[in-house]
């Protein structure tokens, strides 16, 4: 009987008290976990980013559903997609979107091609390789504004450097930035000048990571240098290309700085209007806040459509 | 006719001489092994044969044609690299097919047929759709071999192809390579630092050291009749015993041993003073020391103590120290039969037959006289 009592007593006391210990322990573990203990460190940027960036994006999205314009406050009572509809119908929006697309694709592909070409040349082994590398990479160190000014002078219709050459060859001086048909190409060219060094560096690193005995094996197998590069080397640069392409595309989307610096006001040269410049113009010059917000959202979607596949690809590769 | 001639071939990299004045003739269908320690110039010589390096001096002929300045693409050779050098982004089928694409006289379907034929020979036909990264080391090595074989070249060049394989696989591949080479009947130049591979695989062995050719000959020729001390020490595992010393009245006086010469050795050594005696471990006779025999040692017998016994199963390798001294280092190594078990610390009587002695010049390393071999009975060279 005595034993019975004690067992029961022990059961009844250890029963519920076991539960109490368990959630307390769990809480303790939680409070001691890396997540919580590091929260002051990531918490602050998280809050700042949350308010400034994501809050801003959210607010922007909200405004785009209203018809906020001019002075006053936005009215969130009547939300609609009207701004988006207007944008898609607007000719200048479509033109800007098209030019944006051309800039994106043109700039990225030319930069990649030129970067690859330069990297292959350098990898092949020429003297003063490091010096040449540095020279090609230097333009990236310049700010967009400086680049814009330099090229403004280069493209100057009267006595810009390019026109000096052109007139010396006997042709008439060309108004590079004034002519809507070639202005975009001129802008792309200037941006390629600034960023192809980056593509070159990425490709060069990729090329140098390839074991040299693959080159040798291909030689012994009878492949010419061209064939070796096309069939063996360049296919192995896929990873590097994708990475470089994504970064270049994001630079292209930031071309606003360059265009703004060329003209110094809200209207870039004819034929070079892109979504970013259109958005700034509509919002800050004409006061069409909601319309500008709608364009901004569409620009965000465009950027996401560039980076999202890359992130998915990386995730699938297990690198994320 | 894939015969090769190296004529006073030299390669310099700036100040360093990697290959110095190497003259060598390789017959058609011969399996020649280039062997030597790291940095001896064997890989450089192979690369000159391949066309991946240009000789600084000398001439190189493959199948009678002068090859010094011909690019690798135009030499009818195939090479197997130490790291296989497979193209990682292509399937095995494409890897093997790559070399065929440059060969004339193959249609697309013929190329595919040939690839499959070679894959079957090497046992990799079920791997054709995989990529190199998915294969084991042994499989990758076979693919590298397949890539070389498929082109049916005049010459195979192999740069330490078995170096990255584990011991069992290496032994297996050694036999397979020999069989393959015999079947295909192609001149093969094989580079290795492993003297076992050299001995077992080559029709002939060329030993290199410091860029210079030490000796060329059949394996047993190098084993029993080395041209100098380096070859004697390099070929043969465990290494030949070397006893340094000087000429004395009766024969030889070394640090630990006095060894009287017989008639053959006396005649050969003549007036040379600085000597090195060489005797192979398997020629050293080891018997358990008998109390009674202690004072009755023969002229070529010595008392020694076993310091270390290495059991190999089929044989035991004994490290022997001189009994009279408490010296740390071992004087001799002997090989005994696997069943003949001697424990460390045991005193033994060691006998070295003068017929088995090699004598080398202490200063130059050249062979003064090699051991006597009874050719009729023991072996044919």
Describe this entry's structure for a reader.
Chain A has 320 residues and is mostly helical. Chain A has 2 domains: 13-64, no CATH class; 94-317, MetI-like (MetI-like fold, Orthogonal Bundle). Chain A contains 15 helices and no strands. The model of chain A is unreliable at 1-15 (pLDDT under 50). The radius of gyration of chain B is 25 Å and the shape is elongated. The model of chain B has no long low-confidence stretch (mean pLDDT 87). The interface between A and B is medium-sized, with 17 and 24 residues.
Largest sheet of chain A: none
Query: What is the CATH fold-level name of the largest domain in chain B?
Result: Rossmann fold
Task: Domain count of chain A, please report it.
Answer: 2
> Biggest β-sheet of chain B: count, sense, barrel?
6 strands, mixed
Q: Please state the oligomeric state of the protein chains shown.
A: heterodimer
The residue-averaged pLDDT of chain A reads 84
Estimated helix fraction of chain B:
10-25%
pLDDT averaged over residues of chain B: 87
């Amino acid at each position: 009987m005595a034993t019975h009592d004690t067992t029961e007593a022990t059961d009844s006391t250890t029963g519920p008290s076991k539960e109490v210990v368990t959630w307390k322990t769990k809480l303790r573990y939680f409070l001691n976990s890396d997540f919580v203990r590091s929260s002051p460190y990531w918490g602050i940027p998280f809050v700042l980013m949350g308010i400034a960036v994501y809050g801003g994006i959210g607010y922007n999205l909200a405004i785009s559903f209203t018809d906020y314009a001019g002075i006053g406050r936005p009215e969130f009572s009547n939300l609609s997609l009207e701004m988006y509809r207007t944008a898609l119908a607007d000719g200048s929006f479509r033109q800007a979107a098209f030019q944006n697309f051309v800039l994106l694709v043109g700039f990225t592909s030319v930069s990649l091609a030129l970067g690859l070409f330069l990297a292959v040349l350098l990898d092949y082994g020429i003297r003063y390789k490091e010096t040449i590398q540095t020279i090609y990479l230097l333009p990236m160190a310049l700010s967009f504004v400086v680049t814009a000014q330099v090229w403004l002078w280069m493209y100057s219709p009267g006595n810009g450097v390019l026109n000096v050459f052109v007139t010396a060859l006997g042709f008439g001086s060309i108004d590079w930035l004034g002519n809507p048909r070639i202005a975009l190409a001129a802008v792309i060219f200037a941006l390629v000048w600034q960023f192809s060094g980056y593509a070159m560096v990425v490709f060069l690193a990729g090329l140098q990571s390839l074991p040299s005995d693959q080159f040798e094996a291909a030689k012994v197998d009878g492949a010419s240098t061209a064939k070796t590069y096309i069939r063996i080397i360049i296919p192995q640069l896929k990873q590097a290309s994708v990475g470089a392409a994504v970064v270049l595309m994001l630079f292209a989307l930031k071309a606003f700085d360059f265009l703004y610096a060329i003209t110094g006001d809200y209207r870039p040269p004819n034929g070079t209007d892109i979504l970013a410049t259109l958005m700034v113009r509509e919002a800050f010059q004409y006061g069409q806040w909601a319309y500008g917000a709608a364009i901004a959202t569409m620009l965000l979607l465009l950027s996401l459509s560039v980076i999202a596949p890359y992130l998915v690809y990386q995730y699938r590769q297990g690198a994320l | 006719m894939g015969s090769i001639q190296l004529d006073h071939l030299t390669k310099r990299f700036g100040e360093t001489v990697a290959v110095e004045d190497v003259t060598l003739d390789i017959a058609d269908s011969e399996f020649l092994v280039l062997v030597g320690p790291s940095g001896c110039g064997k890989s450089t010589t192979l690369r000159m044969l391949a066309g991946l390096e240009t000789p600084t001096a000398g001439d190189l002929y493959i199948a009678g044609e002068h090859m010094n300045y011909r690019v690798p693409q135009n030499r009818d050779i195939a090479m197997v690299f130490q790291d296989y050098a497979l193209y990682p982004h292509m399937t095995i089928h494409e890897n093997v097919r790559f070399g065929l694409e440059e060969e004339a006289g193959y249609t697309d379907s013929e190329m595919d047929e040939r690839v499959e034929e070679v894959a079957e020979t090497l046992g990799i036909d079920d791997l054709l759709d995989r990529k190199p990264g998915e294969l084991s080391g042994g499989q990758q090595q076979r693919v590298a071999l397949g890539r070389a074989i498929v082109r049916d070249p005049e010459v195979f060049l192999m740069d330490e192809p078995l170096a990255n394989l584990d011991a069992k696989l290496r032994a297996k591949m050694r036999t397979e390579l020999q069989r393959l080479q015999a079947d295909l009947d192609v001149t093969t130049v094989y580079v290795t630092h492993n003297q076992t591979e050299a001995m077992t695989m080559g029709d002939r062995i060329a030993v290199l050291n410091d860029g210079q050719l030490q000796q060329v000959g059949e394996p047993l020729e190098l084993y029993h009749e080395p041209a100098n001390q380096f070859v004697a020490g390099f070929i043969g595992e465990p290494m030949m015993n070397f006893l340094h010393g000087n000429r004395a009245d009766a024969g030889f006086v070394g640090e630990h041993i006095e060894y009287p010469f017989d008639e053959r050795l006396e005649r050969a050594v003549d007036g040379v003073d600085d000597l090195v005696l060489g005797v192979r471990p398997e020629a050293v006779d080891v018997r358990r020391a008998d109390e009674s025999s202690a004072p009755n040692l023969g002229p070529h017998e010595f008392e020694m103590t076993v310091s270390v016994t290495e059991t190999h199963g089929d044989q035991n390798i004994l490290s022997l120290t001189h009994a009279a001294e408490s010296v740390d280092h071992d004087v001799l190594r002997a090989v005994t039969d696997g069943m003949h078990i001697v424990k460390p610390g045991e005193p033994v009587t060691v006998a070295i037959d003068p017929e088995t002695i090699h004598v080398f010049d202490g200063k130059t390393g050249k062979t003064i006289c090699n051991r006597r071999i009874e050719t009729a009975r023991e072996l044919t060279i």
